[in-house]
Amino acid sequence: MKNKVVLITGGSRGIGAATALQAAAAGWDVLLSFHTDQTAADAVVLQITEMGRHAMAIQADMGCEEQIRRLFAVADVQFGRLDALVNNAGIVDTAQTLAEFSSQRLERMFRINTIGAFLCAREAVLRMSTANGGHGGAIVNVSSIAARLGAPRQYVDYAASKGAVDVMTLGLAKEVAAEGIRVNAVRPGLIETDIHASGGQPDRVQRLAAGVPMKRGGTALEVANAIVWLISDESPYTTGSLIEISGGNL
């Protein structure tokens, strides 16, 4: 019997990389996508193969439907099955008020964070649904507590893009519950990853940690552990859930 296969978008760094390594440690084979950092992606693949698991990294822009289709085609050819999808890839932008947003910024944000997640979920459902001859599976969307807090004067657009992913999680979970697919989301809070630097705030975790009830930022591993649980057979009755991993920042 073949090992189960998980596809992780944005799997070269941060939460995606931590999830890839934890999934491999739990016995999964891993296909991960990356956008630009081939070196980081190759390093993750090497660590997974050293665990005795099969792994590949494929360059794919989550804002491009053609590249998303190609990514899933690789899963078909190279792995022969798909058991889980982790919709992790996402972007932030520099801190601005909504009054400063350009249409280009908004289009890029929603194309990658929201439309890309929808398209990946579509491709996963087409392969995993028992209604299509599949054997079921799990989808985990990586959202954010920004979807609930709104991220005022920082990135309301990012928060809104993740809010849309939350709603997709709830609706899709109900659509495919009888087709053997579970759909959940994690909503990380202030987590120590490179995404803050990409938004021009490399010190954001250190600066804001005192406002978190636990008085610290979280780690990518702490989020990854929840994701791997959600795709595993240890959570067979969990679907349509939005799990907050925020150190009590409610």
From TrEMBL:
- What is the primary gene name for this protein? ycdF_2
Enzyme Commission code(s) on record? 1.1.1.47
Give the species: Comamonas testosteroni (Pseudomonas testosteroni)
Top-level class of the enzyme under EC nomenclature: oxidoreductase
Protein name as catalogued:
Glucose 1-dehydrogenase 2
Entry coiled-coil feature ranges: none
Question: From which domain of life does this come?
Answer: Bacteria
Show the GO MF annotations.
glucose 1-dehydrogenase [NAD(P)+] activity
Record family assignment: Belongs to the short-chain dehydrogenases/reductases (SDR) family.
Question: Has UniProt tagged this entry with the keyword Oxidoreductase?
Answer: yes
Q: Does the keyword Oxidoreductase apply?
A: yes
SUPFAM superfamilies for this protein: NAD(P)-binding Rossmann-fold domains (SSF51735)
Looking up CDD domains in the UniProt record yields: SDR_c
**Swiss-Prot/TrEMBL keywords:** Oxidoreductase
| UniProt xrefs under Pfam families | adh_short_C2
